[in-house]
Amino acid sequence: MYRIVASRKRQLRENEKVPALIAFGDSILDTGNNNNLISLAKCNFPPYGKDFIGGKPTGRFGDGKVLTDLLAEGLGIKETVPAYLDPNLQSKDLATGVCFASGGSGLDPLTSSITSAIPISGQLKNFKEHIGKLKGVVGEEGANKVISKSLFLLSAGNNDLGINYSVLRVKKYDISTYTSMLVSWTSTIIKDLYGVGVRKIAIFSTMPVGCLPIFRTLHGGLMRSCADDDNKAAELFNSKLLAEVKNLNSSLPQAKIVYVDFYNPLLDLISNPVKSGFSVSDRSCCGTGTVETAILCNKITPFTCANASKFVFWDSVHPSERACRITAAPILQDLKKNFL
Fold first, then answer.
1. Which residues carry out catalysis?
2. Buried (b) or exposed (e) across 222-234, using 16+ Cβ within 10 A?
3. What value does the mean pLDDT take over residues 37-45?
């Protein structure tokens, strides 16, 4: 047993091809940056984190680890990725990766205004501040090396389509125009990262937004079916995003940008839950499983399940840790093939 643990620790220390993992975007990757914000998009309270290390809420939008942690672990970088705004962030963590993602944020600047999240422009500003701190720890040459070799994750678009478009932007733009705008904003973000030396980027597709429990409730009719219009919007955005990733790889020398399909692996769990050992995929573990997320999922919320691993969703928007682990497996295979 000692040899296995020692080998694992050595692997986590000695990853040279991808020395760090850095995350931007929304709650799919957020590891606690919203904890001190005045925002409804926060979860640093029970029952969030009940299956995390020590059973403590950390600001991760789930019962345990989120994809940022699971991918860092699977790539042999470290077991968990701290939030950049964590007041207890250690300088030793700077060289192995931190998370800038903020639950509720989006590609459209208006989205973060609605949710009081940190916009991606603000996340990029924090990252540039981080570069300065990193130089103080490993020197300028060391910092440049870490940034060029590190893997950068971006998950965005879920809140733009799920919250912003259906409430506000639909009044001004058709879905084809709006998804093109979202892809244009994505491209700008990638070029900004490239401009400061980033070369390895994995961009996540959206989730199947219409099958999230909350959108089944809001848009799925009496039977709470998956909302087809929401899923079609997500599919349209994802197809345009994939095309833009190909364009960016052609236009940015020495960059390796990978499109990560999160939509289909998650949809497979939702459509075929029993195959993967789940009992429920149309409701979440927290509360009634139909609308509860963020502050609506709290320690006095009744009916929360005892075993989140039987549910595809932890709350009405976010997959459970077990669902994240299962969807992380094909993602890790792809990342290893492209970056290790």
1. 27, 315, 318
2. eebebbeebbebb
3. 96
